[in-house]
């Protein structure tokens, strides 16, 4: 038997070789000119003129190629058979040999594209919550890295993911990428109950994805009626190739096929994993729904909604609930009508869960197209190539998303109004301006990922509640735990980080008992770009995403006194702040010691002040910044007292959430808080010093920006220019009332 198999293999190999040689010889002898055109197009050739002679030649060559293709298929079948003649698992004709006109991804020439380079590709993703919103960014990065086509992402989201992803894509501003959002809450329970029946909320689901794991069943109804086809992806997918290759597979569907799926690579649907294991009905091993190709127009004509509902109702009578969410229902429908499914080669969904046959989907890791981390263990899954898969995933996880803002060559895209305005502003900048770098930084569009970690939103915040607002970079990360121990209330932080640093922060926060226990700390990542620290942009991001009526505007290197949160809420109520326009000043002190026994009261602080272990903040380098607080009066004060604005005053204050924004022209070091206090005064805020509140600045190494300020005369000169321009803008907004600021500046 084995000998006969070898003879048959050698005969087929010899036949294939002969046919290939004859076809190439025919091309060379028959017509050198047309042969050149026919040989070159797979890589770089030009398209010949469409005359009769060429068509006749091409027709003859196609017939020879077709015979060659059929022989290769027969050869593949012989190679795929074992000594017993049975086919190997997971090896289809399509896996062994790509259809004619396509190339293996291991050949020297790139695969011919069957999708027009400017065709818009549609991708649908269900995303709910903070964690899934992080996961989907890595998926999108992997798609954008390889893509050559315009993309339209359709996100079915809850309110949390909607806010996060909408802000992210608006700030990312990737050319030729469109984004639409659909409310998952409407799909859970129906748009207008009880007139409309619930969509999926009636289906019991044991899967960890919860009710959102059933949303893909509703896409024919949720997505626009004029959308004819879509690729549907789970958030735990990583692409290793151009998604256009997957889009091209739609062209291989037969007239009856409406769903493209990869066979499930675990034994789940075989029902032999444990005693009395009873999975939902499935065709053979069943199919995995992490990657789906949906022909929406055909599904609508077939009555997909009624089809899956009836199937689910029937099976739930005995199964009681789904175990694998939408995947169980998709498989039950396909079991009933196998003609609906197109079997995708398994390299389009290599499923990395324990005990799968994923390794049979590829002979080399370079064959991979889509990796699916569909185990709850995610990166800790067992697979002999898991290190390669993990490194590929981590590459995209930490990849600089700014690099993906590239234009698609040869595809006209309609820029959005914000990008138009930004481009116009950039073009108006004078590159010979000595302060060009400052102005360019002000116009830089930073990517923003809101609520990077789990955050519990307040249903009805207390009318006197207050949020601590601050910003930081990686070098101040060590302050977070201490601040959380000193402040029990809500916190809103903007973190300036690279993509890689954001992942380091994530690991740090998840490993910290203090930080991981808090659900009222909002972390907003502003991704690095440019040469200056955008301090006021960061403050505005943290400020804009607070929920409480009041905010405590501070810096990350200050520790508030113990109990300050409760003290501020009581002060807001006692001073009737909701009925007046006031800024409450928290006096600032500092220590030069890295280890400090933190004072538990004002009396202890005054004692340490007298002994020289504490100082009023910056008294020795910048006394004007806090001198108007009047520390001498504060020592004996028992009630709040009013102070007047003075030049360069920059206290830390509690104000209403709708206070003026920080002026973002001020980047790096200098005048970033001074300008804000000046505008509060211009809007006639009372400045009230709290008698029993304090905060202490902890020592740290000087920032890079303060070093530039001290060493560069050009830096200081540009700061002065920006100050003058700010005064002019203030005068335009507030008229004669703002003249006092310019007069006070000049008197100094």
From TrEMBL:
Query: What does the record list as GO biological process?
Result: protein O-linked glycosylation via mannose
By what name is this protein known? Answer: LARG2 glucuronyltransferase
State what this protein does: Bifunctional glycosyltransferase with both alpha-1,3-xylosyltransferase and beta-1,3-glucuronyltransferase activities involved in the maturation of alpha-dystroglycan (DAG1) by glycosylation leading to DAG1 binding to laminin G-like domain-containing extracellular proteins with high affinity and in a phosphorylated-O-mannosyl trisaccharide dependent manner. Elongates the glucuronyl-beta-1,4-xylose-beta disaccharide primer structure by adding repeating units [-3-Xylose-alpha-1,3-GlcA-beta-1-] to produce a heteropolysaccharide. Supports the maturation of DAG1 more effectively than LARGE1.
- Where the protein is mainly located, per its record? Golgi
UniProt entry keywords in alphabetical sequence: Glycoprotein, Glycosyltransferase, Golgi apparatus, Manganese, Membrane, Metal-binding, Multifunctional enzyme, Signal-anchor, Transferase, Transmembrane, Transmembrane helix
**Any one GO molecular function term:** metal ion binding
Instruction: Give a yes or no for keyword Cell division in this entry.
Output: no
The UniProt entry, under InterPro entries, shows: Glyco_trans_8, Nucleotide-diphossugar_trans, Xyl/GlcA_transferase
The species this protein was found in? Nycticryphes semicollaris
Q: What is the gene called?
A: Large2
């Amino acid at each position: 038997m084995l000998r006969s198999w070898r003879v048959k293999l050698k005969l087929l190999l010899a036949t294939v070789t002969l046919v290939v040689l004859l076809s190439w010889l025919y091309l060379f002898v028959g017509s050198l000119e047309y042969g050149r055109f026919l040989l070159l197009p797979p890589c770089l050739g030009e398209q010949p003129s469409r005359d009769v002679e060429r068509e006749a030649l091409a027709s003859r060559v196609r017939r020879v190629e077709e015979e060659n293709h059929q022989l290769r298929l027969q050869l593949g079948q012989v190679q795929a058979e074992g000594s017993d003649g049975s086919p190997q698992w997971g090896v289809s004709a399509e896996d062994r040999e790509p259809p004619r006109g396509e190339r293996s991804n291991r050949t020297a020439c790139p695969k011919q594209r069957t999708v027009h380079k400017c065709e818009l590709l549609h991708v649908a993703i269900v995303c709910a919550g903070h964690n899934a919103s992080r996961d989907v960014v890595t998926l999108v990065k992997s798609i954008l890295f390889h893509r050559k086509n315009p993309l339209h992402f359709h996100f079915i989201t809850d309110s949390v993911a909607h806010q996060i992803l909408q802000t992210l894509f608006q700030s990312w501003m990737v050319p030729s990428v469109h984004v639409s959002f659909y409310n998952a809450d409407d799909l859970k329970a129906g748009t207008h109950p009880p007139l409309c029946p619930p969509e999926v909320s009636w289906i019991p689901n044991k899967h960890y994805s919860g009710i959102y794991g059933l949303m893909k069943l509703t896409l024919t109804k949720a997505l626009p009626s004029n959308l004819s086809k879509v690729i549907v992806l789970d958030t735990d997918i990583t692409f290793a190739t151009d998604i256009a290759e997957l889009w091209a597979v739609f062209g291989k569907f037969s007239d009856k096929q409406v769903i493209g799926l990869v066979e499930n690579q675990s034994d789940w649907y075989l029902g032999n994993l444990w005693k009395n294991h009873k999975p939902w009905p499935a065709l053979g091993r069943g199919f995995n729904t992490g990657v789906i190709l949906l022909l929406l127009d055909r599904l609508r004509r077939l009555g997909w909604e009624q089809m899956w509902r009836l199937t689910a109702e029937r099976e739930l009578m005995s199964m009681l609930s789904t175990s694998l969410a939408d995947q169980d229902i998709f498989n039950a429908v396909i079991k009933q009508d196998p003609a609906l499914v197109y079997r995708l080669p398994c390299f389009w969904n290599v499923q990395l869960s324990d005990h799968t046959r994923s390794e049979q989907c590829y002979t080399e890791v370079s064959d991979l197209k889509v990796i699916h981390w569909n185990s709850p263990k995610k990166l800790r899954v067992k697979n002999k190539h898991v290190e390669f898969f993990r490194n590929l995933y981590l590459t995209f996880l930490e990849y600089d998303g700014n690099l993906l803002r590239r234009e698609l060559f040869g595809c006209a895209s309609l820029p959005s109004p914000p990008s138009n305005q930004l481009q116009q502003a950039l073009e108006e900048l004078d590159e010979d301006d000595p302060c060009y770098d400052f102005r360019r930084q002000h116009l830089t569009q930073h990517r923003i990922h809101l609520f990077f970690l789990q955050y519990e939103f307040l249903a009805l915040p207390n009318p006197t509640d207050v949020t601590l607002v601050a910003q930081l970079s990686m070098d101040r990360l060590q302050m977070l735990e201490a601040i959380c121990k000193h402040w029990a209330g809500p916190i809103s932080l903007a973190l300036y980080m690279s993509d890689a640093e954001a992942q380091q922060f994530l690991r740090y926060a998840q490993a910290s008992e203090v930080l991981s226990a808090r659900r009222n700390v909002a972390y907003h990542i502003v991704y690095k770009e440019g040469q200056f620290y955008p301090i006021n942009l960061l403050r505005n991001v943290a400020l804009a995403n607070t929920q409480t009526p009041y905010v405590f505007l501070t810096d990350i290197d200050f520790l508030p006194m113990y109990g300050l949160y409760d003290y501020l809420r009581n002060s807001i109520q006692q001073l009737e702040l909701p009925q007046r326009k006031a800024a409450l000043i928290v006096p600032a002190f500092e220590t030069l010691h890295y280890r400090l026994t933190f004072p538990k009261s004002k009396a202890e602080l005054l004692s340490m002040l007298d002994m020289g272990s504490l100082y009023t903040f910056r008294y020795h380098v910048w006394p004007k910044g806090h001198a108007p607080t009047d520390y001498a009066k504060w020592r004996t004060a028992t009630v709040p007292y009013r102070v007047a604005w003075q030049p360069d005053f920059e206290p830390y204050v509690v104000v209403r959430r709708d206070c003026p924004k920080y002026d973002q022209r001020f980047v790096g070091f200098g005048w970033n808080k001074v300008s804000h206090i000046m505008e509060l005064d211009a809007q006639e805020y009372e400045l009230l010093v709290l008698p029993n509140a304090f905060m202490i600045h902890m020592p740290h190494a000087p920032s890079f920006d303060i070093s530039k300020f001290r060493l560069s005369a050009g830096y200081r000169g540009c700061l002065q220019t920006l100050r003058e321009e700010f005064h002019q803008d203030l005068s335009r907004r507030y008229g004669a009332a703002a003249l006092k600021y310019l007069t006070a500046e000049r008197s100094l």
